[in-house]
Design goal:
Number of helices of chain B: 3
Radius of gyration of chain A: 19 Å
Structural class of chain A: alpha/beta
Helix content of chain A: 25-40%
Order of helices and strands of chain A: EHEHEHEHHEHEHEEEEHHH
Number of strands of chain B: 0
Oligomer: heterodimer
Distance between the termini of chain A: 32 Å
Strand content of chain A: 5-15%
């Protein structure tokens, strides 16, 4: 069953809002390298930022679609009052929480159930077993994450999983899909590790172009097979490079998007922004170049005049093989990966095998 | 080498060293300064008028 408005055209503007740097885990691939929470805003400051966004969204005739995350968002005691505030805003249509899942309890889920705009909870799983997951996320955290997932699903919440693909867990993909199907997870995204933050020296963890191609091919084939068998799990392949697996899928004349399709251009400068705990705005959480701060810069100023956003919006600025690639509308490469790898966010995606 | 070192230091330090850069609005068209979907529409044109989806649609950013 396709979900209209979820993947098709909508009138949302997306925010990935990191409300704290604090986290109970120290994952080896984290994009953070500071967990002090020294720059976290108070709940009143968070509300003030939300209040600044609302008039602009109304003027743009858009609704805010916000993913609340951290650090670990459930570590903040005032997460629920803030969610309540957002849930009651007329300018916000959807809320999501991105979490490591380890702190989720029955009591927390009871509180979550009252938020009418809360659409999904994303839990990070970096392996299909404790051996793999805990090597990245610390001992005991696989069982805690699975427990959290089970509590959420038993309470009819929409659970999605994020898997960060790297050398040490690449062989786990088949069993991860098995696990996701078995646990009745609704969505699975396999994201590439970007070497930054705690993983800044982890370039050895990156897959080669050929390894990445083979894994994406496997996932695509497996997803097609499972869909035919009626799989509920949606493997979300709306990311740069996926289009290389089967370009014909982007040539369909329909103006709707099927879950079977592959590839999507990165959203930088198109329909979303990332907000950090101190109100710094990034084009994407994995591209750590500030483009403003909502304490002093308006959303309009950032969106309409950021030099970096205009550079990336103009696809003629892309370099290397990305510059002349026919798949730009469905790819354009990952600008964060280009930056992490070369120091130039306009460089070609270093993992593209085309 | 000096530049490489600087890039390495900068790229892992989000907020303290890099100042945001803004363009002079006089160098942008009225549409660029008023339509939040300007870039998305340009991309759709590039795609032959077909819907262009963006990765933000699946809410799976980390």
């Amino acid at each position: 069953m396709e979900q209209a408005g979820f993947l098709g055209k909508d009138n949302n503007f997306y925010f990935q809002w990191h409300i704290t740097e604090k986290c109970n885990l120290r994952c080896s691939h984290c994009y953070q390298d500071d967990y002090t929470s020294s720059s976290d805003m108070s709940i009143q400051e968070l509300k003030n930022i939300a209040n600044k966004l609302s008039p602009t969204l109304a003027k743009w005739k858009k609704k805010g679609d916000i993913s609340i995350t951290g650090g670990e968002p459930f570590i903040r005691k005032d997460l629920f009052p803030f969610l309540e505030y957002l849930d009651s805003s007329q300018e916000i249509s959807h809320l999501h929480i991105l979490s490591n899942g380890t702190l989720i309890t029955d009591e927390i889920v009871e509180k979550l159930k009252k938020f009418t705009k809360l659409d999904s909870i994303q839990i990070s799983l970096d392996g299909s077993s404790p051996e793999t997951h805990d090597k990245i996320r610390g001992p005991g955290n696989f069982e805690k994450a699975i427990r959290g997932i089970r509590i959420l699903i038993s309470n009819c919440m929409d659970v999605k999983v994020m898997f960060t693909l790297q050398r040490c867990n690449m062989k786990d993909i088949p069993s991860l899909i098995d696990l996701a199907i078995k646990e009745k997870i609704n969505g699975l995204t396999i994201e590439r590790l970007v070497p930054m933050g705690s993983a800044k020296d982890a370039k050895d963890s990156l897959l080669s172009r050929e390894e990445l191609r083979d894994i994406f091919q496997y996932i695509s084939d497996r997803a097609d097979l499972e869909y035919e068998k009626g799989m509920q799990l949606r493997i979300l392949k709306y990311r740069p490079l996926w289009i290389n697996i089967d370009p014909n899928r982007a040539k369909a004349e329909s103006n709707t998007v099927s879950y079977k399709e592959l590839g999507a251009t990165c959203s930088i400068g198109l329909d979303g922004l990332t907000i950090l705990p101190d109100a710094t705005v990034l084009p994407c959480r994995r591209l750590p170049i500030p483009i403003g701060n909502l304490k002093r810069d308006s959303l309009e100023k950032i969106w309409f005049t950021s030099d970096l956003l205009w550079q990336i919006r103009d696809k003629r600025n892309l370099k290397g093989k990305c510059n002349s690639c026919e798949f730009i509308p469905r790819c354009g490469g990952c600008r964060a990966m280009a930056y992490a790898y070369t120091g130039d966010y306009l460089a070609e995606d270093p993992q593209c095998w085309k | 080498m000096g530049d490489e070192k600087m890039v390495k230091e900068f790229k892992n330090d989000v907020s303290k060293r890099i100042e945001p850069k803004f363009r002079n609005p006089k160098g942008l068209s009225p549409e660029q300064l008023a339509d939040p979907d300007y870039a998305l529409k340009q991309l759709e044109k590039l795609n032959g008028g077909k819907l262009s989806i963006t990765c933000s649609k699946c809410h799976h950013c980390r």
